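Possible regression after last week's pipeline update?

I re-ran a chain I had predicted before the update to compare outputs. Posting the input and the new output here so someone can diff against the archived version. Not blocking, just want to make sure nothing changed silently.
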Amino acid sequence: MSRIKYISFLILICVISFHANSENPRILLNQVQLKLNKVNNYKVDIHIKVDLPYIMMMPIKTKLYFKQKDKFKIDTKSIAILPKKGFLQLSNLVNDTINYTAVFQNFELINGVKTSLINLIPNNDTSDVVLAKLWVDGINKVVVKSQVTTKSSGTIKTEYLYNTQINFGLPDKIKFTVDIKKFKIPKAIAADINTSTSKKVEKKSGEIIVTLNNYEINKGIPDILFNKP
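New output (post-update):
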């Protein structure tokens, strides 16, 4: 076999392998999880901007801490409005092979990136998650978009923008789009919201945008930090 034919053969095998993995949802999700598993801990500066009806909040700048497997903390005395499970749920869904069946639906282009749309369907009726949709970039092995519908919080759509830490599967920007009627607002804020019946909420959804900068990855974080109020 000539060198050119040999190289062409290798390229063909790589292409076939890529498409096979893209259409095998569990293989693709395992690859995503392997990348996330490289991160034992991290801390990062975050900027939170909230755009929800009836809520006037200045953007918040603070630090976020994470440690495997599920230790998570936002270090602020201010009230931070975020989906309750927004940062941890994605990894849990990707890694859960027992409670969810993964089904490949189709390929979709998102911002010029070819993604595999994978549906995660609960295996029992007791799950809070009704349906989860994940759009996975098969080349970089990251989730670029998700749509999770739950019984408790309605539908939350999330977009992930990667740049500096894509090798670890960590985003530089996250945009949450939440269902206004079902999104759970912290009680301290909810008590101050003017819910006059003379005003109607025309928007059915709101946005929370989180920008992440200055990651410090796998440098160690003491467990006691997560116990502090």
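Follow-up from reviewer: compared with the archived run. The chain is about 20% helix and 40% strand. Marking as no regression found.
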